[in-house]
Amino acid sequence: MKKITFFLFLFASILANAQAFKLSGKVIDENKQPLPGATILIKSIKKGTSSDFGGNFSLQLLKGVYTVQASFMGYKTISEKITITKNEEYMIQLKPDATLLGEILVSAIRVNADIPITYSNLSKKEIAKRNLGQDIPVLMNYLPNVVSSSDAGAGVGYTYMSVRGSNGERINVTVNGIPYNDAESHGSFWVNLGDFASSTQNLQLQRGVGTSTNGSGAFGASLNILTDAISEEAFGEISNSFGSFNTRKHTVKFSTGKLNNHIEIAGRLSNIYSDGYVDRAFADLKSYYLQGSYTDENTLIKAVTFGGKERTYQAWFGLTAQQLEENRRQNPYTYDNEVDDYEQNHYQLHWNEKINNNWATNLALNYTKGAGFFEQFKEEESAADFNNLIEDDSDLIVRRWLDNDFYVANFNATYKTRGVNVVSGISYSNYTGDHFGEVIWGDDLAPNVSIRDRYYFSDAKKTDFSLFSKATLELSENLSTYIDLQGRFVSYQTKGLTSDRVSIDVDASFNFYNPKFGFTYNINNNNNLYASFAIANREPNRNDFENGVSTPETLNDYEFGWRLKSENVKLNTNIYYMDYKNQLVLTGALDDVGAPVRATSGSSYRLGLEVDADIRLNDVFTIKPNVAFSNNKNRDFVTSINGNLENLGNTDISFSPNVVAGNILTYQPLDNLQFSFLSKYVGKQSLSNLSSNISTNDVLDSFFTSDLNLVYQISPNKIFKSITFTALINNIFNATYVDRGYYYTFDDTWTTPGTTITENGAGYYPQATRNFLIGVTLKF
Residue 457, Cβ neighbours under 10 Å: how many? Predict the structure, then answer.
């Protein structure tokens, strides 16, 4: 009987100790406003969750002692040890983190689940898993409705991305709130930011018009990049990676940590080199990042400088269909120094000031200096095309230069209290740029001509002034409204000759008013709905003016979405309708330096459904699928065919696949070991806006690729804090695919409205078959 009693007591004790209790609570800020999406983590058992739309969270835990960590972007992470013996409820209050640049700036250019904008975030931790030398567009490839590509095929050098079918010229990019897009071309040249991912704290991609930001208007998306936060502790880091096509990355980072609790100095030096998948399409990228910061309880002053020099062999012309079949790795260029050689340096100063619990301000100043050239060999050229610096039918080598200066001043003020959040700001930028070409060699120069004499020149100036005010107002416990008003005033002048020695004389001004508004309704703590309407206007770029386009384009963007957040599932679903007037669509053609040619399509639209999720299947498996279905059409598209204007009816917008899907399946059997299997599918897309009315070779086939990613970390007792091994096998199933191309005519007349189409062809950019990258990072 005593034995039975003992075993019953032992069994009851085991049950009591194994009993699950509920840890619940709410995450709030200083104004006692809920923080939806805050992360609550218990590392010791690899268990966590995120707060719902009301800031609430709950976890089931066995009896025991745990360290609970709570974090939210722009706020200080806190950890607290708790003992669980019964159901417990905690209120977690997070304070703004002055070491991050910063809550003030984040609130000025970014959004969260309270605002009716469609967005995705990518953290430093997520970036680091695949940061082995490939550029930011490639690292973002698995975000919803994103398609990335590269000229050299290996993700290093000239890389590109599109969002919702809109290319990089239509994606607004800011770095710490400073516009990064080139003022004239509107493009973002990632080749000038080698290894910038190693200095990125986090980034947010807003799809559609998004919230008001600085710089050119967003016509497909806006990308906000925040650079490294201040480190409380000193550290050093050495990172090296090697891989296929002689690809290698060498990075050194350091931080002094907080000196006297106020000052930190940190920096990075990087060198990336790759021969490229395409023959001789090498990229040699040298870059740096340096920051100095001062912080106290209410102040952050941060000086940042970064930049780099790139030398890239040209692969922008791609391959014809015949060349692709013969040898997909060949490069038609034969001149040894057919290179792009450019240097760009950025200098930023940020001053964040928290005045009180309600008011905060941010002042930012920027200067960017860029200069470089594109060198090209030409044979049997006409003297008239080069200002008679050569004799007719001469061979020569030219350099086309761009030398520019870019100044920016931003100021934002934030007012935040219970139920009200208002952000207002102004931005002013001034750009000046010289375009000129030099003859650096000729086999038959004209008399009295010297090497480096110029055969064309034009100067340009652009000013951009904008002001905005946006507010989130809590109308009731479950309903909030968002209002965003922006005025943008642009002036652009350029005068002189283009590289074709055609006169260019532009003096244009644009006044744009871009209102946005919407609603967010919390159905309950796990579900909310949002709807928004936004108007965006955008001026033509320099190439558009050269091609005779001077009319701005207008976009009306309608978004409707549903968000779900529970302990193990995050789900975002949205429908968008983007209605364009005078949309500048890619014709499919390229100009003589590889820049895409655009033309006004009249009336057009993009209608789509996007779904993305983050699902925790169990303690070791998570899955992050996303899919986008869309219909992208030009209405009553008119173009010239064989000299006659024809209405082709509704045609597909170029480079806009109807299906884009991705998935990341992660297996983490141990805290320090992680495997990820990544997949991407991109449906077929048109290389022109003709919908195969002229030829069937203006369609790019669909493709499917998969990558395998391994991360393993050890923590030695001596010398190093951690050693992290990373491996990435790209295109693991060895698919032979093309993800980008162009459409042209063999007689060099482009397929743009107003030209005559004779014999058609296409160009293709082959991407790498199976390849690998491996790396090791030492932290001390």
Answer: 14
